[in-house]
Amino acid sequence: MVKKTYNIDVVLQALSDPTRRQVIERLGMGPASVSDLAAPFSMAMPSFMQHLDILESAQLIYTEKVGRVRICYLNQNPFSVMESWLQVQKSLWETRLNQLDSFLLKTKGKKI
């Protein structure tokens, strides 16, 4: 079995756009056709397709052609990788802040 890797930089860049985040939020409710995803946005279909291409390049979504309809699906794997990265960062900063808190309590009232 081949384990896929996800580039966090590419994922974060793809999610930096509000339109793409809204598409991801919508796909969190389930698969949707391209036309259904595009309906809430006031932009031309080619412009909307560029957003989908970026999301697909970042492996955040994948698409399947069913007859004449293109269906989009959310790929949750990159989010798991990001969640792990964020958890490591959170743990690191909590440790640092706890160490700073301990240092400040020890040195409270003392000249350094």
From TrEMBL:
GO molecular function, one term: DNA binding
Residue ranges occupied by any HTH arsR-type domain in the UniProt entry: 1-96
Alphabetical UniProt keywords: DNA-binding
InterPro entries (UniProt xref): ArsR-like_HTH, HTH_ArsR_DNA-bd_dom, WH-like_DNA-bd_sf, WH_DNA-bd_sf
UniProt cross-references to PROSITE patterns, sorted A to Z: HTH_ARSR_2
Protein name per the record: DNA-binding helix-turn-helix protein
Organism: Leptospira wolbachii serovar Codice str. CDC
